[in-house]
Amino acid sequence: MHRRRRTVLSVSAVLALASPLLAACGGQAHPGAAAVVGKDRITVAAVQAQVRDVRAAQKKSPQAAEMIKSSNNLSGMKLGNMIFDRVLARAAKDAGATVSRKEVQDARAQLVQQAGSEARLQQVYLEQNGVAPGQIDQALQEQVTANKLARALGADLGTSAGQGAVLQAMTKASQALGVDVNPRYGVWDAKKSQLGPYKAPWITQVTKQQSAEAGA
Fold first, then answer.
1. pTM value?
2. Which residues contact 110 (CB under 8 A, 6 or more apart)?
3. Within 13 A of 29's CA, how many CA atoms are on the CB side?
4. Is the Cβ–Cβ distance between 129 and 4 less than 8 Å?
5. Would you say residue 91 has pLDDT above 80?
6. Does residue 8 have a pLDDT over 70?
7. 44-59 and 118-129 helices cross at what angle (nearest 10)?
8. In Å, how far from its chain's centre is CA 45?
């Protein structure tokens, strides 16, 4: 696991997300859906709305060009986070871990104090995590939930063993829910709790055939 680190430790902050930026998509089984998590349908429109909010915020920054370039897989990242949030919520529920609105507000107040101002906090989240100002509370909800889940499991998120315990709980949650991703976005890896590039079975078969022919 790698990529961005947040001020408050979050499991999803280290997920690697790879998927093309899409204008629209729709799977045969779930037209108009980017993914279905359990009975929860994540629409393409919802993913695009999150992308638009981030792009709008980025364009107001002096570092707009750099931020946009570094987040060219923003659509996949946002969908990955949306799936992750739902799986995390299920894992927390199964472990008996709950998060109140006040806990999220307290976490935000603490981060504002650490950052020096609300404006600075928004800047950090946008630059480092691709999170628009209006998405910060949801990101904090995820972070607080991950920490409370870890405590419920007796795990320390500051260690690889602790992160492994949380991921194991999330793997069970993923399998219990069932995660169906539109293949144009990628495929959900339940064991790693991340969205990765989709590789159709026929592509694998063609690759094997090419390798065999090359070795003949």
1. 0.78
2. none
3. 10
4. yes
5. yes
6. no
7. 120
8. 17
